[in-house]
Each structure stands twice: as structure tokens, then as C-alpha cells.
Amino acid sequence: YCNLCSAESPYFLHTSNEKRILKNSICPNCSSRKRHRGIYQIYKKKLTEFNNPKILHFAPEPVFYPLFSSYNYITADSELADVNMCLNIQDIDCKSRSFDIILSNHVLEHVKDDLKALSELSRILKHNGLLILTVPGDWQRNKTIEYNFPDRNGHYRDYGLDFINMLNSQFGKVDSEDLYKYNDHYDLPLGLTPKHDLAFLCHKV
């Protein structure tokens, strides 16, 4: 079941790269990925905790647009043309304490200086604001693997659990959730994989 488009299907499409095959990843109806279907549940839950939040979404995925249509929702990217603002996540041209919620889904692995990007995200969050973040990684490995040059997917690194230490250096409180916890939230499974996608909830306190 796809919770983003409400489609039922006997299967989702598999994807692969040189490292692994990812089964039941892409919804054949709306093209959502595993991580989208999982983090959608977090987005819905966290939106209820804010009163008319101002939201900034880096590299926004169109599958989420219906969810945010009634909110003060601003999209941003450094390359995409169909966004509200052209912003470099390593040097964000916004005033400090501008946003209640910031969303960044599989962006930091493409950024050369990810610590600088996190510092900027923390700077533009309001007091008691929330950054909801996902990155690809091996969440059974302690150390992040850094590459001398971006790989064929444009990734500068493959994250490990030490990423949490980096987040803690920039935010007052950091929680993590295995998105697999939402797999059986509906009558049919969402196609999620245990320990594959973690969401990091970073609080500005």
C-alpha cells in the first residue's frame, strides 16, 4: 500500500545500484520511494505539533506537495528551477531564526561540507524549531565512509552512526526513528525495510 497516493499494488518496483538491490522501493503509481512512505508518517505527526508553522523544504519531492498545500511552505534548491528560492545549503541566504520546520531528505550526502550545512540549518531554525532529516547510510556501521571524489550518484560519503555525533554538535536534542516502525501502520505493508532508513529529528532548544 502507498500511503502517499492511496494505491494498492501486488508489488512495488525494485531498484539497484553497484552496492545493493533494494526490493519493493518505488510505487508504480506515484513513484514514491521507501523513505518517502516512511517519513510521510513523521511529517503528518509533527505538523500537528506546530501552530501555522513556516516550513522550508530543501530539494522538495513533489509527492509531498499535497500534504503541505495548506501550510506556509517554501521550497528551495541550488539547481532546480521549479522551487520558490534558489539557496545554497552551505551558505543559506536567509535571516537567522526564520523557520519553524526544515525538511531535508537525502541532500547532505551531495554536499561537500556537510558540517557547514548543518550549522546553517541550525542558524535559520527558530527557537524550538525542528529539522527533519534523512541521509543514506549503513546504520549497522559505526563510521561514515568519506570519498575523495563524489561517486556516480554524486555522494561525497556513506554515513554511519557517527553522524549522530555531528548532529548533536549542532542541535540541542536529536532523536532518531527507524522508518520501518510504520511498515504495518495500514492494512497492507508499505514495503519498508528494517534498519534501512533512519529519520533524524533535530530540535533547536
Task: Provide a short characterization of the protein structure.
With 205 residues, this protein is α/β, with parallel strands linked by helices. It has four helices and eleven strands. The strands form three sheets. Strands 5-4-3-6-7-11-10 form a seven-stranded mixed β-sheet. A two-stranded antiparallel sheet has the order 1-2. A two-stranded antiparallel sheet has the order 8-9.
Provide a descriptive summary of the structure in words.
The strands form 3 sheets. Strands 5-4-3-6-7-11-10 form a 7-stranded mixed sheet. It is built from 4 helices and 11 strands. The chain is globular and about 45 Å long. The model has no long low-confidence stretch (mean pLDDT 96). With 205 residues, it is an alpha/beta fold. The chain is 17% helix and 27% strand.
Quaternary state of the chains: single chain
Work out the radius of gyration: 17 Å
Average pLDDT reading: 96
Q: Strand share of the residues?
A: 25-35%
User: How many distinct helices?
Assistant: 4
SSE pattern: EEHEHEEEHEEEHEE
N- and C-termini, Cα separation:
37 Å
Strand order of the largest sheet: 5-4-3-6-7-11-10
How many E strands? 11
- Percent helix, as a range, is 10-25%
Largest sheet: 7 strands, mixed
Find the structural class using helix and strand composition.
Answer: alpha/beta
What is the general shape?
globular
Poorly predicted segments: none
List the SSEs and their pairings:
Blueprint (H helix, E strand, L loop, with lengths): L12 E4 L4 E6 L7 H14 L6 E5 L6 H4 L3 E6 L7 E2 L12 E7 L8 H11 E10 L10 E2 L10 E2 L4 H6 L4 E6 L19 E6 L2
Parallel strand pairs: 3-4, 3-6, 4-5, 6-7
Antiparallel strand pairs: 1-2, 7-11, 8-9, 10-11
